[in-house]
Design goal:
Blueprint (H helix, E strand, L loop, with lengths): L1 E2 L6 E13 L2 E13 L5 E2 L2 H12 L20
Antiparallel strand pairs: 1-2, 2-3, 3-4
The structure holds zinc ion (ZN).
């Protein structure tokens, strides 16, 4: 069993989404294999998964689709 470094909860192997930035533009990677904490949601990528993400980010992206996303300031009041 893998233990969460944040809350000592149990981590389960799941597929998750990771957002990285390339030249200031967000790139969403889906179906990334990761360990996810069942208690606090902490995400932990294996060294191999992290290395593969870096490779994909540096290479040709071939997006499966495009999305638009809202951008919200943390301290926004309106
Ligand atoms: Zn946790």
């Amino acid at each position: 069993m893998i233990i969460c470094p944040e809350c000592k909860g149990e981590m389960k192997e799941e597929r998750t989404s990771v957002t990285l930035f390339r030249e200031g533009q967000p790139v969403l990677f889906e179906d990334v294999p990761a360990w996810v904490c069942v208690q606090c949601g902490e995400i932990w990528l294996s060294a191999e998964a992290a290395r593969k993400l870096d490779e994909r980010l540096a290479g040709e992206l071939k997006p499966r689709r495009y999305i638009s996303m809202p951008v919200v300031a943390f301290a926004a009041t309106s």
